[in-house]
User: What shape does this take?
Amino acid sequence: MKIALSNVFDARAQPLRWLVFAAFATMLLWSCRAFFDFGELLLELQGKSFLERGSIGASEWQCFLSRSGRIEKQQIFSKAHREFALATHGGVESTKVIFSGNVVAIVNPRTRSPSRTLEPITVVRAEDDLPGEIVSKGSVALVRSEKEFSSDIEDGWLWTVELARQLPPDAKVFLNEPSLMLYYFSTFMWYPRRVDVATQVHKISDAETFEAVFRNDPSRLEAINLESLEQKVSLLGYTHLVVREDGELKMLSLRTGGESNQQ
Amino acid sequence: MMLRELLSVLMLWAIGAAAFTLVCSELRRWTLPAKIGLSFGFGLVVLAMTLFILSLCGVIPAPWIGLVEAISLWGIVIATRRKKLPHWRPQGRGRDAIAEPGLRILECVLFLFVAGVLFVVSAVSLLEPIVEWDVIAIWALKAKVLLHEPIITSPYFNDLSKTYSHPDYPLLWPFAMAWVWSCIGSMDLVKVKVLAPALLASLLFLFFGLLRRKESRRRALFFTAVLAGIPVLLTQTSRMVTDVPLAFFVLGAFVCSYFWLESEHADDLRIAAAFAVGMLFSKNEGIGLWFILGIMVVTALATERRIKFLLPAGIWLGVVPALVTLPWFVFRLGIPKVHEDYGGKIGVVYFLNNVSRVPEVVGSSLRFFLNWEDWRIFWPLALLLLVLTLTHSLRPPTLFLFLGAVLPLLMYGYVYVITPWNLKELMEATASRLLLQIAPVWGFLFAEQVHARKLLPFD
Assistant: This one.
């Protein structure tokens, strides 16, 4: 059997077929973006160290794979990307950004309205257009692209991977930090070393039960109780303690009294 | 050096190829890509089940286990099925028409597209370490546990402080990861990702090979390219998310059952049974999908009054997968159930109590179906084809595939209605992945619908 090309491309005889073909062709053409997305990431990852590659991959601001399958993350990213492109002329100039809680305020003097909120991105003409509380409590940075944003997951991944190399094989770690992500990541990265967030076994199935563990034993969260906490967990056989001091995460060795690393 | 991780995957494939050769009485019915894809599925099922049984007996994953298994299976193949081995060779052109240069160029373009996608996804997968939240919290953690201690003595499965990692989730993918790590000799976060390109290649080979049972090479390539063009399939495979192996097994089980209903050839049924085992041992959703498969096959046979086929269907699709995975389900009974107990909430009364959630579930689902970033226009295409081929889709044999594609969607909708979690948060994290589990079956349905109504210009 021989197929004649002229029959195949006879559009008048097959309008429905062409409609279907056009729909599939559209899907395929759009799918070619995979070459750009994966290709760009490939170029970024190439030649980098293990930690740098993990850092890029874990950051939802730097790696599209981290946003895949999650609509909200994708929407927040595209809003940020769009607004940064406008504010920085496509990354040519840097623009002022104010971070306060969950709010990311981009200062763009050329924006049309004084203030536009695109949850959690806010675009303002000037800092004065922001509520005073955000300006006073927020931290300011000059940024060219959303890729410069830090990511909690990226920080947590890096910190736990780096410490996994330093922890002795028989370590037992008490994590005194109410971060579900750090608990998940450290449990995996440091396995088979045990990681606990409570001195007794409690059910931890999600963020709610995790927070309950901390809520029910608030005294150990106090920095002033650090010494007693060290004694308490040391007596229970823990060799390392993770605490946050002056805003920095630290791993304390209860054997030597030294500090392994800080974030 | 990539040698060890490559060897681990090759061993997995060799085990599967031997098992496939033993199970299949007529290898010639399958093209080489189908054989490669099916072999990977058989390999995952056979090796993971072996490692699980041995772990129950106190043995942790080690390279010698796979080696002994591969040598034993190939020994049996050579002793009993030697004459079938030449049937592994690629066959002649068969159904393929001799096309004009323009169409040959189309084939080349489609092939380059699929191969190119496979290349870039593989390259990224082999450079990026494991960083995905779910993989770290659930699947890779389990793999580390399995590699460190036999499950029979492991405290992990009863540790309430680790219930976030769902100890009751099936172990096929963690055992596959533990297997690669055991071959490498370390729990390397990058090298274990050799499984990602192997799985993607096997899925595409399987999809193409299954299509080739009924379609020309050109059309099979065309629809394989459509599948390879789904962004969320590529990203989730690269990230080693377990929904992709499940999608792979669902494709094999559903489509081979569909073939069996037409061909009545025992090979199709046996392959479907092996892939049903893979479904049950990959993710908990596999249980629901297995029920759907059973209901569909029984309904199809009953409506066509082919009562005598109910027995082989019941044995191969019901009894065999249940028996093979029985040790897992018995072991699972001993794991404290503190998470979502969907089994206890499956009743209609519970559904009716939560029926007010239905509009929210439907509304939110539309956002995911229409998400360009993850799906491009895959689901709008599905709707277009449904509209254009509705009468064909509702007639046997396409009806079977149609139900196989639609019923899982209803099941997922039902689960969202009865779930104890915050619906918005749950859908944000899971909706795209659930759709992914059945996307290859939908892709296959596309091909059947288009074929039935001759909806492509090069039909």
